[in-house]
Amino acid sequence: xxxxxxxxxxxxxxxxxxxxxxxxxxxxxxxxxxxxxxxxxxxxxxxxxxxxxxxxxxxxxxxxxxxxxxxxxxxxxxxxxxxxxxxxxxxxxxxxxxxxxxxxxxxxxxxxxxxxxxxxxxxxxxxxxxxxxxxxxxxxxxxxxxxxxxxxxxxxxxxxxxxxxxxxxxxxxxxxxxxxxxxxxxxxxxxxxxxxxxxxxxxxxxxxxxxxxxxx
Length: 216
Description:
Layout: E1 10-14, H1 24-32, H2 35-46, H3 52-61, H4 70-76, H5 84-93, E2 97-105, H6 106-116, E3 120-129, E4 132-138, H7 144-157, E5 165-169, H8 175-180, E6 183-187, H9 191-196, E7 199-201
Parallel strand pairs: 1-2, 1-5, 2-3, 5-6, 6-7
Antiparallel strand pairs: 3-4
Helix pairs in contact: 1-2, 1-4, 2-3, 4-6
C-alpha cells in the first residue's frame, strides 16, 4: 500500500491495560484460583512495598501447579482495546512498524501478536515443566529499562530515528520508553504518567492516529 507520508513511524505500546483491556496475570490467576493472592501482591506493589521484579515473582508464584492449558483459557478472555486495529492499520499504511512490550507473558502475547499483526513483541516467559507451571519465570525480566531498550532496538533494526517514534502506556513501568520516544502518550494513564506524558488520551487508541503526522 502506498505510504501516506514521508515518515515511517514506530509505535511501541504497553500490553496490559493498553493494547488490551485486561491484566494477563489476573486472567491467569482467575483460572488458577489465586486471584485474591495476586490482588494482595498488587496492592503491596502499589504501596511501594515491592519493586516490579519482586511483585512479578510473587504473583507468578501463585500460579505454581496450574496446567499450561491456562494460557488458552486466558487468551480466549482477552479483550483488545478499542481503536488498536485502526492504529495498527494507520501505522502500516505509512510503512511503519508496531511493537508491544509487556511486563506480562509471551504465552498470551504470542497469539495476540499474530491476531493483531504486530511487527515485534517482547514479554516475560513463564516456566513450564511437564505441562505444569512452576511458579517461576525464565529469561530476562521485562521491566521499565527493558521496555526502553526494546524501543531503541526495534527503531535501530528498522532504521527509524527516535524522532519518528511514539510510546504508549498507562503505568510507571512505561515512563522510561515514553521518555526516549519523540511522543510519550499516557493511555488511561496513572496520575504520574499523565503528568510526565506529552499527550494523554483515554479509552480509544485510534485517538493516537493524528499524532503520526507530528513525527519527523
